[in-house]
Amino acid sequence: MAIFAVTNSQLSFNLFNFSVSRREAFISRQAASGIRHRFSSSRWLSLNSPPTNTHSRSFDSFKLRCSITNTDVHFNQVATEDEDLSATDSTTPILQLKSDVLETESLNILTGDTYVDNLLTTLPVLSEEEQEALAATPAHPEGLYAFYASCLAGNLVEQLWNFAWPSAIALLHTSLLPVAVMGFFTKLVIIIGGPLVGKLMDHSPRVPSYIFLNAVQASAQLLSVAMIIHAHLVSSASASSSLLHPWFAVLVIAGAIEKLSGVALGVAMERDWVVLLAGTNRPTALAQANAVLNRIDLLCEIAGTSLFGILLSRYDPVTCLKFAAGLMMLSLPVMIGLTWLTNKLSAGVLDRAKCSQSCCRMSAEGPLPDADNLVDTGLKAIKLGWREYIQQPVLPASLAYVLLYFNVVLTPGSLMTAFLTQRGLNPSIIGGFSGLCAFMGVAATFISATLVRRFGILKAGAVGLIFQASLLTIAVAIYQSGPLAQRSPLLFFLCLIVLSRLGHMSYDIVGAQILQTGIPSSKANLIGTTEISVASLAESLMLGIAIIANDVSHFGFLALLSLLSVVGASWMFCRWLLNPTEEQRSLFSFDPQF
């Protein structure tokens, strides 16, 4: 039986979880205003219940919900009338509470498995403004800035090379065939190797694998530069004969390795690294980091394409390619140093395991790749990647993103660069076109924020797709209305494509956050690289058609197919918004427009 005495008749209780065990029944005679008591217990105290006969268990623990302030607590050990002390070896505590004034503040007395703490810690409750400020603050801001610098160094070289190689090859021949063949086999390698590389990265340490892929990409780029310089020194008469030369085969292999490494690095940065550095539970900071990454990529595209275009308009292709090679060699040590600095400034957050130890050794995804059974492991990784990709809850949004990859003509890509080069446009104008397309992407990072506030994150993506489809429809109609022999119709055609990039990049920004929300971090690289593989499959189909219709006169037909892919992506995404599943509703419950 518990004797409970209160010395102040005005003392009131706010019941909440408070427990005392028999072995923790001693509390020093001190003012309790600065003490938080935590006791282990398993039962509630019922003050109105009669005493029971199971005395050995009745005092093992009891719980009392109360809030007390400026109160002295005293325990007196007395025996109960019906208690056998020799049998139970327990006493009844008398709790005396003394208080002069009961203030409005109350102690938050918590249950726990430890003994009494001697200091009271106040649990703060953040205001709405403070919560918003916390959500907008990155978890590792210094590491995030170093990460931005690393992305800047790598993307500048990659974007310059993405413009340089099709321009240099297009100057060799008047056909789209060499560029289309290179693009086709590059996408084929990504389709096959993407899931395998994604699985390897999911089971490998982040920093070493990231540095290794950077080194592989730089080596492949340098080898490609050497092959294209060799081709310019021993130029062949026809495009078909060039495809049979050893240098072209080496160029295709090196280009495929370079692109596969770039895809893996991009997925790691966008789906894994930025999430850890910005904070998984800080959505505003993550959205801002995504926008910064997009701006870095697009600004590098503006700088890289414009720089190489200006150089190509003033110097011969070999000199420009040597300049690109020097830039590649200089950027590699810079990227490696910034990568280590990123991990150091983020307190080693990139060293954390992506899954538990048992999961890493043998998970449901299968064992780690074995050198003796690499082909079988690769096939299993491809099968696993496609299964996980199909089962993701945001599949319709991802498929809409994949459909956009069918658009290989009405975009600043290799085929458009080759087409404009063969039409005799000045390389500086072609570089300016690519730079303006990238500038529209930078503008989209600001406009998309306004669209999200007005329409919600998902409807903002739909607005971007519809805007892109509308402008490209007008562009294709102008092209089909007559040949673009004069400069003015051609420039107007290009201006419509530039403006359409505003909608494309708006959806690209939204799509990145949709996939980050719907895909778990343990499968981010696997699903991300598989998505790129599916997109590469779509792109390779269009490049296969371009190989067949490689004459410049067939460009209008290719443009029409590209337009249909954008219209199909808009239809699929809007259909998903009108018919979401319950799982999708729960994932995007924060979006009031969904």
From TrEMBL:
<feature type="transmembrane region" description="Helical">
    <location>
        <begin position="176"/>
        <end position="198"/>
    </location>
</feature>
<keyword id="KW-0406">Ion transport</keyword>
<dbReference type="InterPro" id="IPR036259">
    <property type="entry name" value="MFS_trans_sf"/>
</dbReference>
<dbReference type="GO" id="GO:0016020">
    <property type="term" value="C:membrane"/>
</dbReference>
<feature type="transmembrane region" description="Helical">
    <location>
        <begin position="457"/>
        <end position="478"/>
    </location>
</feature>
<comment type="function">
    <text>May be involved in iron transport and iron homeostasis.</text>
</comment>
<feature type="transmembrane region" description="Helical">
    <location>
        <begin position="527"/>
        <end position="548"/>
    </location>
</feature>
<feature type="transmembrane region" description="Helical">
    <location>
        <begin position="399"/>
        <end position="420"/>
    </location>
</feature>
<comment type="similarity">
    <text>Belongs to the ferroportin (FP) (TC 2.A.100) family. SLC40A subfamily.</text>
</comment>
<dbReference type="GO" id="GO:0005381">
    <property type="term" value="F:iron ion transmembrane transporter activity"/>
</dbReference>
<dbReference type="InterPro" id="IPR009716">
    <property type="entry name" value="Ferroportin-1"/>
</dbReference>
<keyword id="KW-0472">Membrane</keyword>
<feature type="transmembrane region" description="Helical">
    <location>
        <begin position="490"/>
        <end position="507"/>
    </location>
</feature>
<keyword id="KW-0813">Transport</keyword>
<feature type="transmembrane region" description="Helical">
    <location>
        <begin position="320"/>
        <end position="341"/>
    </location>
</feature>
<feature type="transmembrane region" description="Helical">
    <location>
        <begin position="246"/>
        <end position="268"/>
    </location>
</feature>
<dbReference type="Pfam" id="PF06963">
    <property type="entry name" value="FPN1"/>
</dbReference>
<keyword id="KW-0812">Transmembrane</keyword>
<protein>
    <recommendedName>
        <fullName>Solute carrier family 40 member</fullName>
    </recommendedName>
</protein>
<feature type="transmembrane region" description="Helical">
    <location>
        <begin position="555"/>
        <end position="578"/>
    </location>
</feature>
<keyword id="KW-1133">Transmembrane helix</keyword>
<feature type="transmembrane region" description="Helical">
    <location>
        <begin position="210"/>
        <end position="234"/>
    </location>
</feature>
<feature type="transmembrane region" description="Helical">
    <location>
        <begin position="432"/>
        <end position="451"/>
    </location>
</feature>
